[in-house]
DNA sequence: GAAATATGAATGAACG
DNA sequence: CGTTCATTCATATTTC
């Protein structure tokens, strides 16, 4: 069983998540999580728990400047609120113009004992699609069915955005 | 340039780190990390994050040795006497199966030159790890806050209410 | 020099 | 919510 045990968000999903995190402040409500998950499902495999964890991790990572070295940047003792402005931080940085990557060897199966020394390394796996997503309307379904997919996450349904507008 | 993209501890630093690790500090607190980093700074360049990561990796590595991964074949490379009786607590078990994604959508055609004129292929080729690597190298990791890129991400107006302008 | 390995770094998931 | 564990990724190092 070589299935992925760990969810890995696709770039599109990441994009959406980042955007949501950027505009959202804190922990999304449960309904929101469901909604987001539903939308993200259109772009890849995802569960509500994944989205929830992602937001939690994201927030925890954002608030890691004064408390601990935690995981992330080197050391940021600034008192500025990074929660909304961490745009300046660059996490996934790749070194300067050294990205002249060798030809894509599309096989990193390290456990494989076979010597897959395929001499042909013609990169062929790059069909990067447009980043534009047809992510249109997020279903504003007023379906308050309470699914216990992730159990009680302790999410507060305090501000239901749907009711606000 | 071409400097150490990755921190490499000097032998002296490694010595200190190992000694500290041997003392039984399974989880050094942040203050400890700071202190240790201070100490290590006298022997070479280091950041708190480095020390933190080092301890994390060290601990994870030790745990792995004890339990034995048993990936696939009987790839048992035991014989390490370095593992001490530090913290052989019970390993955190994670009952899988919850997020076992079906492999139906994992067969991403990388070549993509087929006559698949399907209109929506946004996330078609973004599941395999090898592609992720290539994408990283190419810096295709989408900019989180790129407005025009995210353009019609379709953050529906319901969500925009957080965007208090 | 390429493959195999060691290991630092990133991150999803879980615990308290 | 903050912290920690576990897994993966990327790169430095070693080996052949």
From TrEMBL, chains A, B:
Domain Homeobox, first and last residues per copy: 1-65
Keyword Transcription regulation: no
Disordered: annotated span: 65-109
Subcellular location: Nucleus
Ranges annotated as spanning the membrane: none
Keywords: DNA-binding, Homeobox, Nucleus
DNA-binding region positions on the chain: 3-66
GO molecular function, one term: DNA binding
Chief location of this protein within or outside the cell: nucleus
Record GO cellular component, one term: nucleus
Database matches in Pfam families: Homeodomain (PF00046)
Claim: Nucleus is one of the keywords in the record: yes
Protein name per Swiss-Prot or TrEMBL: Homeobox domain-containing protein
Record organism: Eruca vesicaria subsp. sativa
Organism taxonomic ancestry: Eukaryota, Viridiplantae, Streptophyta, Embryophyta, Tracheophyta
């Amino acid at each position: 069983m070589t299935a992925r045990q760990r969810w890995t968000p696709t770039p599109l999903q990441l994009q959406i998540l980042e955007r949501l995190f950027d505009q959202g402040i804190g922990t999304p409500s449960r309904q929101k999580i469901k909604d987001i998950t539903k939308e993200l499902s259109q772009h890849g495999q995802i569960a509500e728990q994944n989205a929830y964890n992602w937001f939690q991790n994201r927030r925890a990572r954002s608030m890691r400047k004064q408390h601990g070295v935690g995981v992330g940047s080197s050391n940021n003792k600034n008192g500025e609120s990074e929660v909304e402005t961490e745009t300046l931080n660059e996490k996934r940085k790749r070194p300067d113009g050294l990205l002249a990557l060798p030809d894509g060897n599309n096989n990193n199966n390290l456990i494989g004992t076979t010597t897959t020394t395929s001499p042909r390394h013609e990169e062929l796996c790059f069909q990067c699609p447009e980043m534009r997503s047809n992510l249109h309307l997020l279903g504003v379904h007023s379906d308050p069915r309470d699914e216990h997919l992730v159990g009680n996450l302790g999410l507060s349904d305090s501000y239901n955005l749907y009711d606000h507008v």
